[in-house]
Amino acid sequence: MGNKKAISPVVATVILVAVTIVVAVAVSYWMGSIAGLYTRFEKLEITSYTMTKDNVETLGAPSLTGKGWKITLYVKNSGSLDSTITSLVVNNKPLDSYIVGTNKRAEFGTQTPISVKTGMTEPVTIYLLEDDANNKVGFTAGTTIEVKLHTAGNMDFPQMMTLS
Are 88 and 111 in contact (CB under 8 A)? Predict the structure, then answer.
């Protein structure tokens, strides 16, 4: 046994430390990719909007008639998950619920559901009719409204705006 040689303790320590570092780096990359799968989220932002007031037929409303607004919201998905807008809420009421008799007072100008891919911006158009002497279910110039985008992930993304 006297003629057998082993590696020195210093070299053995260097090898063990190097192997430990390589294994730690590999595990951290693996865990990082798994964590990324479970931490995806949706986040929509209304980056800007345009508002035009005129006869809504002139503005392109599918089935409304009268004076009102065409509002185009530019919605950006800044989250890490694709998002789908399923409905829109104005002043805590669904857009579909603004009805007088059989006449709608508000409607989507964009086909729903609306898919917004990660990093992309999509336009969302809505039409709102102005109040007239016969009803008070429409909207009034100068008032502030809250518009909420509701997604398939059961999230709401609000934006305040003043009708001008």
Answer: no
Structure tokens at 161: 């705006």
Question: Spelled out in words, what is the top-level CATH class assigned to the domain 44-162?
Answer: mainly beta
C-beta of residue 71 within 8 angstroms of C-beta of residue 110: no
Predicted model pTM: 0.73
> Which residue from 162, 163, 155 is spatially nearest to 89, judged by alpha carbons?
155
Rg (CA), the chain: 29
| DSSP assignment of 107-119 | EESSPSSEEE-TT
Q: Within 10 Å of residue 153's Cβ, how many Cβ atoms?
A: 13
Would you list the domain boundaries of the chain? 1-39, 44-162
Q: What is the pLDDT of residues 63-100, one digit of tens each?
A: 888 889 999 999 999 988 899 999 999 999 988 888 77
